[in-house]
Amino acid sequence: MTAGKHDVLVIGGGNAALCAALTAREAGASVLLLESAPLEWRGGNSQHTRNLRCMHEAPQDVLTDAYPEEEYWQDLNKVTGGITNETLARLVIRDSAHCRDWMRRHGVHFQPSLSGTLHLSRTNAFFMGGGKALVNAYYRSAEQIGVHIRYQAPVDRLELRDGRFVAACIGAERIEARACVVASGGFESNREWMREAWGQINGEWVADNFLIRGTRFNLGVLLKFLIAAGADAIGDPTQCHSVAIDARAPLYDGGICTRVDCVSLGIVMNKHAARFYDEGEDFWPKRYAIWGRLVAQQPGQIAYSVIDAKAIGRFMPPAFPGEKAQSLSELALQLGLDQRAFVRTLEDYNSACRVGTFDHAVLDDCHTEGLSPPKTHWARAIDTPPFYAYALKPGITFTYLGVKVNEQAAVHFSGKPSSNLFAAGEIMAGNVLGQGYTAGVGMTIGTAFGRIAGAQAAAAAVLGEQRAAA
Amino acid sequence: MRQLDALAAEARTLAIGLPPLDPSEAEVARQMQICNACRYCEGFCAVFQAMTRRLEFGKADINYLANLCHNCGACLHACQYAPPHEFAVNVPQAMAKVRLQTYGEYAWPPALRGLYQRNGLTLALALAGGLALFLLLAIMMKGKLWQALPPGSFYQVFPHNLMVAMFAPIFLFALLALALGVRGFWKDVSPGDRVKDAPGAAVAEAARGALLLKYLDGGHGQGCNEADDTFTLWRRRFHHFTFYGFLLCFASTSVATLYHYVFSWSAPYALTSLPVLLGAAGGMGLLIGTTGLLWLNLGRHPLHGDAAQKPMDRGFLALLLLGSLSGLALLAWRDTSAMTLLLALHLGVVMAIFLTLPYGKFAHGIYRSAALLKWAIEKRQPSHLQLET
Q1: If you classify domain A243-395 with CATH, what class do you get?
Q2: pLDDT single digits (tens) B115-161
Q3: Pick from B40, B96, B39: which is nearest to B73 by CA?
Q4: CB contact, 8 Å: A390 with chain B?
């Protein structure tokens, strides 16, 4: 199957890798895709995704209203705090306006916004069945059009010559190709690297208590290799996208269902039963991504979201049932927290609440007075049993460190673009997304740069062949 | 620890008067809790849309959702939490296990509930009994199974009144048993909803869902999954062949009954007559449909559905297939000496089908139709949840 030299080698098995492989194959190249995971775990973090942020000038099938380029760009510029590259960002945004027909041709189905995600109905096109259904569709299509696929093929290093790709190595095996797309993800599942990147806070190795929301296969092997081999890096190695998730979530692949969405409806305490941040600062979809870091900075990297019966039915149901008790001191006991401190924090909060007209759909006037930190919206006394609590830990979604690329997705060595080595997906997302996040933009970057890298790699393979023949 | 939790949960539900969950139901509840926090599969089918209207899953919800599930497999292949993930979410399989319990739990009369637990044996005994009965009867009536009779003289072998006397009570009993079973189911899963108060649009939608097998379309029209994550419409097509073939055979018998009693036209009917045309078309439909479904069933992905139910599924298909084969053979050779034997065989198989109608796979259609109706009613009611958007 995979004997002989391929035109294009794609390293990785998620959305960006598949987009690259499909595009290169469509351009006539022979393509080999190497996925480090076994078949049942294929797809990297893409298997946990659910939508694509799409520019559109008018309502389209599953997208309402319009989301023009300028607004999209402003959103991206805002969430990244300007740490982005406008040229590359606009390239991605424009691609998102028309990539969905191509996606459909390869078997991806879209559905309207899911219940609980109506705030995304204008900006994000949801994959029917989620990211794993998309990944399955791409693999089927890839097999149909003749992309060669190998699972459990973890590339550990590349052979480079003067910034040109020569071969990839899996242990003693050497795989040559005329061009290569590296789409092997970030390094968030590499525990040691995370530990080193985060270092110690108050004497604790904080990353030891992190949970990884995505794949266990993003070990960052090639990212580390490329940077060591002289590829230009981009992004802050200590930065990652993290949210507060249920502390009972598995170490890897907990995905979407481990989120806990009741923070803004109650209060959050650390393990000393002290509050540490304004839970009602802004709407939850705009704030959930800061809570990973907030919890990471607390002792033991753990926190507890506490609500009462009034909150039930107002937030997305969590996968794990909360601790439930008829009294606050009983709840503290169940959580293993100091009962007196716990009850005092709640009493202080309850008596500080100035309740106006509660409305979770707007930034309402229910707030605290004389409390530090304050809760600025949706502050209602936690006084109606049963009471519930959810333990929270930082859940890492992805890392920002990557390799620098240009509009052709070419990897750079000392400022010079490689002629046959390209990067796509999480390993280069930092070019567009230096920090922050907005829903669905990771898949948009992966799709746009996957397709660019695939096309460029196919063209580079032809050029390489011509040069070899000459 | 887990056992202790289970005991505690049971004690709690008992304390507040809810029926406790058995292990299969508890497994559905566990999985639905995960699915409800994810919801990626909402576009596939009604199960997930019905799920989002709930925060907790009691026995009635679970039985309802289990019967709403068509076992299409789409959510399994799309699931980020499917095995080997430690969450081990396999909704079609968990639902299938509960469905079998639903059939057994509501089977009427209650003494016959156990037939679902040993369905392979049930079908085998019914078939053996049916065949033995008619072969013996034929020998008693005519002395031998192979003989030259005037063309198509079925009633010389078994008088019409005898056949009516044997089949009518069994058929009526099957109808009664199924009706009482689904009535009990409806009372539990939809307390307070009276079927006759259901909006016409809801009834029409449920009927469309059942008759067109809407939820075997994958949500995108490309069909359901069989051996892998590829979508195919063949299960829906073969099911249509089977179901409408069955209905055509039934229509053939009904028309023939009308001919007999209203017009006093006795069988055999001409090859171009309505009963023969309907019966032949129905027999062909059953033949194609059941063969196709058996073939798909043999190739199904091992994680699909409940392996323990394959004897029931395949047994029912095999019985229908035998019914169509024997019926078509009877039509082909009704004017030969083989007629007596073929007639006895065909009637024996048909008897086995009707005997086991309320105690086998056939019941799935009844309970699923009820679940579809409940969904069509429920979706028209406002949700009591105020989830953030």
Answers
A1: alpha beta
A2: 999 999 999 999 999 999 999 999 998 888 998 888 878 888 999 99
A3: B96
A4: no
Return the CATH superfamily for domain A6-185+220-228+400-469.
FAD/NAD(P)-binding domain (3.50.50.60)
Instruction: Tell me the pLDDT of chain A averaged across its residues.
Output: 95
List the domain range (segments joined by +) for residue B176. 114-363
Cβ pair A126:B43 closer than 8 A: yes
ipTM of the complex: 0.95
What is the distance between the terminal CA atoms of chain B, rounded to a whole angstrom?
37
Q: Does B74 touch chain A (CB under 8 A)?
A: yes
A110, A127 Cβ separation under 8 angstroms: yes
pLDDT digits (tens, 9 = 90+) for A355-379: 999 999 999 999 999 999 999 999 9
Q: With an 8 Å Cβ cutoff, is B140 touching chain A? A: no
DSSP collapsed to 3 states, B308-334: HHHHHHHHHHHHHHHHHHHHHHHHHCC
**Candidates A127, A128, A313; nearest CB to B386:** A313
Pairs of residues, one from chain A and one from chain B, whose beta carbons lie less than 8 Å apart: 115
Domain total of chain B: 2
For residue B41, give the nearest of A129, A131, A316 by CB distance: A129
- The answer on B95 and B143 residing in a single domain is no
Domain contains B176: yes
Measured between CA atoms, how close is A201 to chain B, in angstroms? 31
Q: Check CB contact under 8 Å for B219 and A111.
A: yes
Q: Provide the shortest C-alpha distance from residue A281 to chain B (in Å).
A: 16
Question: Which residues in B331-349 are b (16+ Cβ under 10 Å) and which e?
Answer: beebeeebbbbbbbbbbbb
Q: Is A386 on the interface with B (CB under 8 A)?
A: no
Do B202 and B187 share a structural domain? yes
- Let me know if residue B369 belongs to a domain: no
Whether residue B352 is contained in a domain is answered as yes
